[in-house]
């Protein structure tokens, strides 16, 4: 899957061929990937595949999930000039995209970790980039939520509109879905959260609730259904996530890790 992604990403940029290479013959060359801002590395495993495919040498000074500071040399590249200049944008785009997500994710993780809360990503990913973007959140320290609809059964508010008897539905679902698949129910009120617990959910997502509302559900869970996991979600930002972590939930999910990640600054400089 990674190889296919890298091949298609490079092909998108190269098109029918690099016009630069038509003018002069190739020469031996080397370059450095330099950080122009602080961040967290992600994308190395994809760029390693690019190196193998395009036969250029790559020496890393930073690993995935490792911190880099402005001015750090992240990697050195060597090979023929045509190759290095052809893969430059593809390499930087993959490194920038993944590292930017990992960098923002780490900011969230640093806030929630002291409270023993897991940070989860979501399915709010760009089309065809789910595996890549969720890999980037892992590099930042998050835990992947569902990769897709076949991962676990989540019953959202839209699903609940079609279900007349939640307990009966969950009982039937247990006979149909894989033994290892969990069932999660999205709850927008205390009433729905209680019903989900009583109906046999493995996880209850407290969606678009205030931290104090979630704290009440946590207390109810602890007293009556200690085995059930609680997740907080919905419009949670860097400014508010600590208050949610203090509520006692087991995990917090946020699509912002991906769709709010602003690109950091990296560049390639030829020696």
UniProtKB/TrEMBL annotation:
Cellular component annotations (GO), alphabetically ordered: cytoplasm
CDD domains: QPRTase
Gene3D superfamilies: Aldolase class I, Quinolinate phosphoribosyl transferase, N-terminal domain
BP GO annotations: NAD+ biosynthetic process; quinolinate catabolic process
Domain Quinolinate phosphoribosyl transferase C-terminal: 101-269
An annotated Gene Ontology molecular function: nicotinate-nucleotide diphosphorylase (carboxylating) activity
Family note: Belongs to the NadC/ModD family.
Function: Involved in the catabolism of quinolinic acid (QA).
PANTHER family: NICOTINATE-NUCLEOTIDE PYROPHOSPHORYLASE [CARBOXYLATING] (PTHR32179)
Name by which UniProt lists this protein: nicotinate-nucleotide diphosphorylase (carboxylating)
Gene name per UniProt: nadC
């Amino acid at each position: 899957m990674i190889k296919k992604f890298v091949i298609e990403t490079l092909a998108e940029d190269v098109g029918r061929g690099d016009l630069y290479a038509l003018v002069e013959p190739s020469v031996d060359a080397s370059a450095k990937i330099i950080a122009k801002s602080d961040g967290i590395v992600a994308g190395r495993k994809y760029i390693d595949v690019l190196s193998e495919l395009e036969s250029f040498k790559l020496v890393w000074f930073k690993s995935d999930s490792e911190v880099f500071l402005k001015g750090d040399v992240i990697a050195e590249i060597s090979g023929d000039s045509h190759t290095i200049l052809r893969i430059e944008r593809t390499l930087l785009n993959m490194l920038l995209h993944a590292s930017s997500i990992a960098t923002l994710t780490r900011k969230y993780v640093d806030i929630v970790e002291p409270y023993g809360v897991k940070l989860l990503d979501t399915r709010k990913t760009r089309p065809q980039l789910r595996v890549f973007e969720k890999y980037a959140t892992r590099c930042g320290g998050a835990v992947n939520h569902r990769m897709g609809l076949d991962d676990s059964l989540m019953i959202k508010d839209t699903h609940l509109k079609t279900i007349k008897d939640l307990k009966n539905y969950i009982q039937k679902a247990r006979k149909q879905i894989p033994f290892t698949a969990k069932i999660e129910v999205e709850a927008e009120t205390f009433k729905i959260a209680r019903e989900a617990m009583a109906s046999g959910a493995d996880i209850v997502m407290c969606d678009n609730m205030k931290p104090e509302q979630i704290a009440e559900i946590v207390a109810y869970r602890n007293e009556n259904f200690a085995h059930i996991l609680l997740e907080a979600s919905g419009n949670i930002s860097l400014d508010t996530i600590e208050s949610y972590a203090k509520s006692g939930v087991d995990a917090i999910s946020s699509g912002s890790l991906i769709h709010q990640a602003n690109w950091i600054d990296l560049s390639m400089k030829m020696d």
